[in-house]
From TrEMBL:
GO terms for cellular component: cytoplasm. The keyword Nucleotide-binding does not apply. InterPro entries: Acyl_CoA_acyltransferase, GNAT_dom, Ribosomal_N-acetyltransferase. Residues 17-177 form the N-acetyltransferase domain. One of its GO terms (molecular function) is protein N-terminal-serine acetyltransferase activity. It holds the Pfam family Acetyltransf_3. This is GCN5-related N-acetyltransferase. SUPFAM superfamilies: Acyl-CoA N-acyltransferases (Nat). Keywords: Transferase. Gene3D superfamilies: 3.40.630.30.
Length: 178
């Protein structure tokens, strides 16, 4: 395994958002996100997780960087954990960084996702080898589409049956960073 790119010395931030590493205290955020009907379909967090499952999920996030998978961050506003965002490096050999994010239902529609995208995008451009940043969003997810566009991302194309979500191959809209 090659050495992963270094963790940022200064936490990425934009507007009211600061991105930080996962901590044991983020179990409550995992429990909250696990109650959302969509979030467990798009990642490794189980739906309606037990405390143990939430703790295990947080521990997995804490190992992702050392494994070379990417940079998982907790989105915070005034020190409160409100969501997650990650820069994933599975296509770094092609020069591509991939973003994914989720915001707790209680903190949506406040510009958090837009600020988090701006924060991680600024950081992503500093990661050696990243020449393009991609983000895939389901066409029905208007809030996420708006957040990406407000963060400066532009829609590139529709990717038919691109990603399996909840056991179904779903169309995704590919967005790219400016």
């Amino acid at each position: 395994m090659t050495e992963p790119p270094p963790w940022p010395a200064t936490p990425p931030a934009h507007g009211s958002v600061v991105l930080r590493e996962f901590a044991e205290t983020d179990v409550s955020l995992a429990l909250e996100l696990g109650e959302d009907p969509y979030v467990p379909l798009i990642g490794s967090l189980p739906a309606h997780p037990t405390r143990q499952e939430a703790e295990d999920w947080v521990r997995r996030q804490q190992t992702r960087h050392a494994e070379g998978r990417g940079f998982p961050f907790v989105i915070t506003v005034d020190g409160t954990a409100v969501g997650t965002i990650g820069l994933w490096l599975r296509k770094l050999s092609e020069g591509i960084g991939i973003l994914g994010y989720s915001v707790s239902p209680a903190h949506r529609r406040r510009g958090v996702a837009t600020d988090a995208l701006k924060a991680i995008t600024g950081f992503a451009w500093t990661v050696p080898g990243v020449e393009r940043i991609e983000l895939c969003i389901e066409p029905w997810n208007r809030s996420s589409l708006r957040a990406a566009e407000k963060a400066g991302y532009r829609r590139e194309r529709l990717l038919p049956a691109h990603q399996e979500i909840g056991g179904v191959a779903r169309d995704m809209l590919l967005y790219v960073s400016p």
